[in-house]
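Notes from hallway chat w/ T.B., transcribed later so I don't forget. T.B. wanted the structure written out for a chain they're using in a teaching module, and asked if we could keep both sequence and structure tokens in one place. Agreed to drop them here.
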Amino acid sequence: MTLLLNEETFGSKAKSINELTEKLVSIKWYKNAGKKEKAAEQLLSQLLETLNVSDYTIKWLEKDELSEKLNDISLSGSKLWEKLKDLPDQFKAKIDESNQVDLLEMIVDIVPESIFHHTFEAAFNEFGEEKVVRFLVGQAMYFAVLICVAELANESTFLSLFTDLLSTGHVPIGPKGNIIYII
């Protein structure tokens, strides 16, 4: 395991963030893209329920639909986005209360870089198209930071559901209104 955060300096939280980052790196990103799987859909539904999003439709995308669908994704008018947009501030408030801002700053600096090459290779091998690869890698880096920040904020339900969903080899792509696309 590659240690990203100094565990002697930052203690058990650094250890859990290191372990979580290692788990994110070991995920077989996009391995099941284009295959509909009930387990992944159930995890996404549970995640949405945790976020108190109830009015939505999950739509599976085929691999060859992704490039075109990226043009349609819009946060405007999405109930999911209304919940997601406040999460970073909510997590940050909890982190501020626990005096772990230094660790938060290190997560934001280190975690995206730690998964970049792995997700780039996976996205390139599965999709190949530059626009799709760029989107997926940027999204994966954001997801990794959000998951690690959730850990730092002690948001274990969000953290475990999201990590479990990604571990299925599927990722939510984004919303258009209250349709949530997944590959």
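Follow-up for T.B.: The two ends are 29 Å apart (CA to CA). Might be a good example for the class.
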